[in-house]
Amino acid sequence: VLFAAGDQGVWGREGYGTTYHPDFPAGSPYVTAVGGTDFIEESTIGDEKAWTDGGSGFSDEFDTASWQTDEVSAYLSSGDVDLPDDSKYNADGRGYPDISALAGEVNPYLISYKDGTFSAVAGTSAASPVAAAILAQINDKRLAAGKSSLGFVNPALYAAGEAGKGYNDVTEGQTAGSYSGGF
């Protein structure tokens, strides 16, 4: 089950405060949370950064999932990232999002509705179906090759990340949600 990570950055639906507010169910270890990226340059499909309003963080309800322990530990101890003050988040919580897709407004998705009028849309609710479609394509290829479907995909996603395969590691931007801070 894929779920949008939220569109308020680290502050979640509760809004700005003294601590970050992880969203549910994105912070649950039982879903694949889909976060958001944004293109760096307008009118160019190219380099990406974290979408500032994309939900992210560490759950206050669930511990770090076993399949993400190594990646979360490496992230928190790398020294390569400018982490927020540790009083703002639960470093022992389940980290999310698991994956991300385009969600930002620099080059948003365009949809046609009503009488053929186009409108721009953005957000992790737009990113999540894109990620679901990609996983569906992978499952189609696996099934056509006589293999099983992926099933619960999170352990495989993190194993591929540890192996350094299959990802565009987005290292620019923060999920501050129109305020300061974020990851």
Characterization of this structure:
- The protein has helices at 69-77, 124-144, 154-162, and strands at residues 2-4, 32-39, 48-50, 57-63, 93-96, 99-102, 109-113, 117-121.
- It is α/β, with parallel strands linked by helices.
- Strands 1, 2, 3 and 6 form a 4-stranded mixed sheet that branches.
- It is globular, with a radius of gyration of 17 Å.
- The mean pLDDT is 93.
Mean pLDDT across every amino acid position: 93
Distance between the termini: 24 Å
Total helical elements: 3
Radius of gyration: 17 Å
Q: Please state the overall shape, judged from the principal axes of the Cα atoms.
A: globular
Main beta-sheet annotation: 4 strands, mixed
Indicate the proportion of strand residues.
15-25%
Structural class: alpha/beta
Task: Explain the layout of strands and helices.
Blueprint (H helix, E strand, L loop, with lengths): L1 E3 L27 E8 L8 E3 L6 E7 L5 H9 L15 E4 L2 E4 L6 E5 L3 E5 L2 H21 L9 H9 L21
Parallel strand pairs: 1-2, 2-6
Antiparallel strand pairs: 2-3, 4-5, 7-8
